[in-house]
Structure formats: structure tokens, C-alpha cells
Amino acid sequence: MTISPATSLYPHHELVDERIRNLHREAEQERLASRIRSVRKARRQVERASERLRYALSRV
Fold first, then answer.
1. How far apart are CA 40 and CA 48, in angstroms?
2. What are phi and psi of 15, to 5 degrees?
3. Coil, helix or strand for 4?
4. CA 60, CA 50: separation in Å to the nearest integer?
5. How far is 4 from 2, CA to CA, in rounded Å?
6. Can you say whether the dihedral through the CA atoms of 44, 46, 50, 53 is positive or negative?
7. pLDDT at 11
8. Tens digits of per-residue pLDDT, 12-51?
9. How far apart are CA 1 and CA 43, in angstroms?
């Protein structure tokens, strides 16, 4: 049984498609992780600002 060039390329295309799906999945995970880091940073900034405000108000 001989394998035609078109048939022999199919597994390669399947691997490429799977890799593309994995890259998309990894990119989405990285975007989510980045948003989580941004939210945590914003919360820390709000907490520090709140502490500064409390300190300033306690001195009035």
C-alpha cells in the first residue's frame, strides 16, 4: 500500500492544528493571568491610598 503525498501530510496538519489550538489556549491563560495581576496591583494601590487617607484624617 502506497501513501499519497496528500495523505502523508494529514497527520502533519493535524499536529499543526493542535499546536495552534494549544497556543491560543496558552495565550488566553496568559491574558487571564495578566488581568488577575492587574487587579491585585490595583487592590494594593487602593489599600495603600486608604491607609494614607486614614493616617491623614487621624492627624486633623
1. 12
2. -65, -40
3. coil
4. 16
5. 6
6. positive
7. 78
8. 888 999 999 999 999 999 999 999 999 999 999 999 999 9
9. 65
